[in-house]
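Morning. Coffee machine broken again, so started the prediction first thing and wrote up yesterday's gels while waiting. Chain of 694 residues, entered below exactly as on the submission form.
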Amino acid sequence: MKGWHKRYFLLEKGILKYSKCRADLRKGKLHGCIDVGLSVMSIKKKTKAIDLDANNNIYHLKVSLSLFDDWVSKLRHHRVFRQNEIAMYPHERHLSLYRLALTFSNSRLSPSLIHVPHCSLSDLKDCESYLLELNLLLKSMEVLHRTSSAPAINLSFYQVPGCGSPPASPHLHTSHPNLSTAEANTSFLETPDSPTDANRLQEDFCRLANNIHSTLRSAYSSLSAERDRVRHTIDLKRVCDGSRQLVHQASNESMSEFFDAQEYQLTSSSSENEASDDDSYISDVSDSVSMDTGYSNEGGSERHDSGSGGSGVQVACRRTTLPSPQPSSSSVSLWNILKNNIGKDLSKVAMPVHLNEPLNTLQRLCEEVEYSELLDTANHTQDPYQRMVYVATFAVSAYASSYHRAGSKPFNPVLGETYECDRPDKGFRFIAEQVSHHPPVSACHCDSHNFTFWQDVQWKNKFWGKSMEIVPMGTTHVTLPGFGDHYEWNKVTSCIHNILSGQRWIEHYGEMSIKNTSSDACQCTVTFVKAKSWSSTVNKIEGVVTDSGGRVIHSFFGKWHEGVYQGDTPSAICIWRANPMPVDQDQYYGFTQFGVELNELDAALKPFLPPTDTRFRLDQRCLEEGNIEGAEEQKQRIELLQRERRKVLEENNMTHKPRFFKKSKDDTWLSSNTYWEQRKDPGFSSREDFPVLW
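Came back before lunch.
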């Protein structure tokens, strides 16, 4: 999203490499390396652009008018060549994409604090090599599976410029739909089943899996012994230093508290992205892929009342699990829904209900204040630089709940839908409303004795073939009454990978800028680091607080799904740590405990809610209870009601007016401060002017 940059490209044997110039490419200084055969290619004729979704990264290329057709033709040919190379010669494909030097970083800690045994380093380096090979096997098994299910084409290997002459094969097979057979010599070939290749791949997969298990077990034993030594050392240091807190304190937490373990997100280098609204896309896709398819006492003490206007109802017990686990994947092909929408905004595309989770976008906004105690602390912190650290950490914590949630999407609120969350135990009360339908805009407001939080958010999302990018638009605001501070910040880009097959995962990347509009004494920049090949940067964040002259006052680091630490290792202090996940969270949509509680409709609370509250949505309630058929039926009915209401407004030349939010002079949505007063007197149950949403 930073504009276009001129690069020098080389396409060789289905691998597209690029650098700043030819000389850099010859020296091996690559900016990126893309396996075209494993990428989804989208062609935008109108703007002469080509998009390559390589799963973990999305590349956007613009080509000059005179070369565009030639680029498209060569990419298609190399793509077919590469796919056949993988399918026919799975054991002989040593790609430059994976010929990168393997390095291993001992740890982030000072050598004086922790020493990783040599045996564990050797084991982990062996694992790294095994994992690279295992990744190649998985890619080959995926391509072989897709290729063997596609129709055979009477085609022999042809000469691709720059590729050399591959050996002829009696079992050539391709699933590419756009390749002209006139460009190749034809012969009548039998359709391959490739049972031998498949069996060999499975045997190699098992062999590598056993090797990885053995070496990891050995590494774990060594690291466990070292962990015990470190714990003992830290305990002694804590006794000597008194109450000084260390980030690497002894605990039963994961070893990530001591150092960042290597994570193997095998990605190619990131590229400069630029979204486009041009709809003249041609999807160059070679395969058709189907979608992979209790209660307890409330913890925590009450800090303060949630303010006047509350219901006076305190839920003594909150549920600890959903009524029903997540249903099994549907047989409906997600690819059939998405294949015609590559490069387009998906906000207007109807999705089947089995892709949803039993929460909606308004409730997702409420999840951002789960760790509101950070703002409580900020409001009682005298040092303005330290206050900024707490506010920035709160902004980072808003992403924590998304870590286990890449597998499903929230319900889209209908126009006029509302949601409230009154939590005296946490000291805040929250309201949200869907204030616009085209474009969809959600507004929320949360107040407490210690802070006020508000935002209106609009999302722009695009599907690129394997991944979906979500670019939020809008500004988040927080005020701290204790000091008169008013903080503003932007959200970063999110991307969901493996949309169609494999394990979906989400990453957030970009730069978040936080400023205090009431004072220019300090600013803060938080970088959500985009994952790089064979590194531990997955989910990593880095932040600095600077004074008005740009001098760094505080620095902090961590991972947005785990915790944030201030200072430098080994003496960094833990500012925030994510709450532990509920038992069996993977069976319940990956919800946090706070998320589990959001859609609970307590009998004592029910009379106080307006009829537009999300908890009364029948489709969402059916899904929560495991009734997929009922949820789909209700979802279609609710969407039909919304279309009918919109038609009535258009016929009468009227526009929708939000009930609890109003538009400001700068086109942002602010609370009208009427919700809690109306709720208290005369109460929503006595009003009859609410629209029928469901």
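Residues 195-241 form the longest helix (47 residues). Going to sketch it on the whiteboard this afternoon.
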